[in-house]
Design goal:
Layout: H1 10-25, E1 28-34, E2 37-40, H2 47-50, H3 59-66, H4 77-81, H5 97-101, H6 114-117, H7 139-150, H8 158-165, H9 168-174, H10 178-181, H11 201-206, H12 209-212
Biased composition (Polar residues): 177-194
Region (Disordered): 28-55, 172-202
Organism: Edaphochlamys debaryana
Length: 221
């Protein structure tokens, strides 16, 4: 009568009907098992119906819902730094740096064993460590000593002096010139053959100008 239209959208009507129908026909689901038995499947709740419910909107429910709960990331720091037995209370061993470094007054061993204080492993505790001999050198030092023993001398002019004392043929064979070591190739990719200059009467014929410019006319003198 007042002209107010109480018409809802089709999606709202469908969601309300699904919720009402699920509450009436929902049965315990046999596929979800707990330690107490089969758990009933929760009825579906649409966003439209949930927004109009008063639960969680006022009072203590609002404070509880608005409280922020951050998800813990990683593990606790005490689990990372703790050592020893986890089923027993932690043991604290207090000591000064002097007690760790030096022995006791009665001559007994220090609180921390020597191989732990010096950074050595338990496997190396019975291995004698000496500062002499080739085994204590680093890899670079050993290689340098090996290269120095193989080298005959450190004379920078050794190659030049040796080349000056060798015969010419042997010197050229050991270190050929650049033009001798390279093989020229033609346009076809094949190795070029060295050209031989003609001798005798043929050389005079090849030196004539009309031969060079491609004329095949022979003039008689």
């Amino acid at each position: 009568m007042s002209g107010n239209v109480t018409d809802y959208k089709g999606g709202v009507l469908i969601s309300n009907w699904v919720e009402d129908h699920a509450k009436a026909t929902s049965a315990p689901g046999t596929h979800i098992l707990t330690h107490r038995g089969p758990r009933p499947a929760p009825p579906p709740i649409s966003t439209q119906r949930l927004s109009y419910t008063p639960a969680g909107k006022t009072g203590e429910d609002l404070l509880e819902a608005a409280e922020r709960h951050d998800r813990p990331l990683g593990i606790k720091g005490e689990l990372l730094t703790r050592h020893g037995r986890f089923d027993a209370p932690p043991v604290q061993c207090l000591g000064t740096t002097y007690q760790l470094t030096h022995g006791r007054a009665d001559g007994t061993d220090r609180k921390v064993q020597a191989y732990l204080w010096h950074g050595r492993k338990q496997n190396d505790s019975f291995v004698p460590h000496s500062t002499f001999g080739p085994n204590t050198m680093q890899l670079t030092a050993r290689k340098q000593a090996e290269w120095a023993s193989r080298a005959a001398s450190a004379d920078p002019y050794e190659t030049t002096q040796r080349a000056s004392t060798l015969p010419a043929a042997l010197r050229t064979a050991e270190s050929p010139m650049r033009t001798q070591s390279l093989r020229l190739t033609g346009d076809s990719g094949l190795t070029l053959q060295p050209a031989n200059r003609p001798k005798g009467e043929i050389s005079t014929e090849c030196d004539k100008n009309y031969r060079r410019i491609g004329l095949r006319v022979r003039y008689r003198s």
